[in-house]
Amino acid sequence: MFFDKLKSVVKTPTIEFLCYKEDYGVLPEPFPARKLMPDWFKALPPKLNKENRFKNSTIKRCAPFLDAMNVGWILPLAADVEFTTNGDASGVNYKWQFYRSMIENHSKAQISTDEAPNPNDPKPPMKFMNYWAIKVPKGYSILFTPPLNRPDPRFTCISGLVDCDGYFEFINFPFFFHEPNFVGIIPAGTPLVQVIPFKRDALFRDFETRAMTDAEHEELEFTRRQRSIHESHYRDYVWSRK
Questions:
Q1: What is the phi-psi region of residue 154: left when phi exceeds 0, alpha when psi lies from -120 to 50, beta otherwise?
Q2: How far is CA 192 from CA 53, 64, 225, in A?
Q3: Does pTM top 0.85 for this prediction?
Q4: Taking the domains of the chain in order of start, what are their residue ranges?
Q5: Could you tell me which CATH class the domain 10-202 is placed in?
Q6: Which parts of the chain are beta strand (E)?
Q7: 181-205: per-residue pLDDT in tens?
Q8: What is the DSSP code (8-state) at residue 6?
Q9: Beta bridge partners of 166
Q10: What are phi and psi of 225, to 5 degrees?
């Protein structure tokens, strides 16, 4: 009974996604990143069908790869946007029918000069408008990054880290459109960024580089001996489900 009461007192940190009242039920909603599994990943077999049955696991059984895909939430595109690009994607036109702005332009001078050209030149920097504000508990920040291990060949948003516990505002997402000679609609609900909250005081600030001690070298060799007797040692004996 005591522990049941204790559980009710200890609150699990919660992330909140909030929009304008008139947009609720209209906008595609954020969703857990674990629900965004691309078709190629679903179709991939966990094991290769070859004579050598050892070391024949595919990336589908790679826990670190899967953890990166599962962590956090996905913020989707709010509405359909039609894009048209030229032969090198240096010219991008767009339009939408949504009652709020969907795209804004950035000046190239903000990211590139003759002395310091941006690797994405000549593609113009643009910005997807987002209409979900985010609340996190005190002490938490959010990493916004393109969906991990699921690149969109058409465009890429720029990663950013925001202290959302003290900044209640819509976070918009600068991006570059990559595909030349594109004519089509990027539909509402298309994943834009992965939202990964973390506690700032958990970040490492100190570091050192050094050679291994004899004990650490033996620890490394012990791990390798463990891996040699069981192909999925990390996945089955070390990994914690996220």
A1: alpha
A2: 39, 22, 42
A3: yes
A4: 10-202
A5: mainly beta
A6: 16-18, 31-32, 73-76, 81-85, 92-95, 103-105, 126-128, 133-135, 140-145, 155-157, 160-162, 173-177, 183-186, 191-199
A7: 999 999 999 999 999 999 999 888 8
A8: H
A9: none
A10: -70, -40
